[in-house]
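Q: I'm writing up a methods section and want to include an example of the input and output format. Could you take the sequence below and give the corresponding predicted structure tokens, formatted cleanly so I can copy it straight into the document?
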Amino acid sequence: MSQPAQQQEVPGVQSEMRPVPDCGEESYKGSGKLTDKVAVITGGDSGIGRAVAIAYAREGADVLISYLSEDSDAKDTQGYVEQAGRRAVLIKGDVADPQHCRDIIQTAVDELGGVDILVSNAAFQMTHDSLEEISDEEWDRTIDTNISAMFHLCKAAIPHMKEGSSIIGSSSVNSDMPNPTLAPYAATKAAIANLCASLAQMLGEKGIRVNSVAPGPIWTPLIPATMPAEKVEKFGENTPLGRPGQPKELAPVYVLLASDDGSYISGARVAVTGGKPVL
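A: Here is the clean output for your methods example:
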């Protein structure tokens, strides 16, 4: 697969991408692996988050979809969850705000009855060729959105989680193969993997499992919104499989880590990279 050169304003809108990412809208088939669970997904409006929301709903979970500002994308994802016969709650706002993270969890408790699965997936990145190009504000935004938000979400969610619950962080192939043009983003993705490994050990006695997923180049709105058009055109070509991944190709891993099928998987970082090794 190749994609034409294109750019959007941050945070990007899925419906305006060419080709439109495949989040499993027409293909994912559930089998009851998450029946009556409650899942919180940040960045759940599009891309990987949408694919996970669709899969979780078709596996039987109710879903809270946290998103920044992409109302049309979020409503589309809500529609897919409801078509699966599950409840979908939308909450709009910036996870870089600690209080908003706490509000997300409280909304899940109040409106859906608890939190069984937390997927910390919302992310921000920008492309730069030198450190001097990165403003203090951009550095802080990247840290606050990608890793501090996960801390605040976990801290708020854990008191509501019971044995068998699951926390999943969206890391990246950049966690140990950092792209120099994505230095702040890569640093946060390494931190996510590390935090998940720490929490897995900390929360094991509570029966709460914690893992991270390390995607490679996945075709999501983050790409045309944060990369130059000429890099978008070649995005994913440098993988052994020679193409970017589609969001739907991540969803089964997130289902595994959230379900009883993954009952002895904790502290792992699962690579979905098109052949690039994650050590």
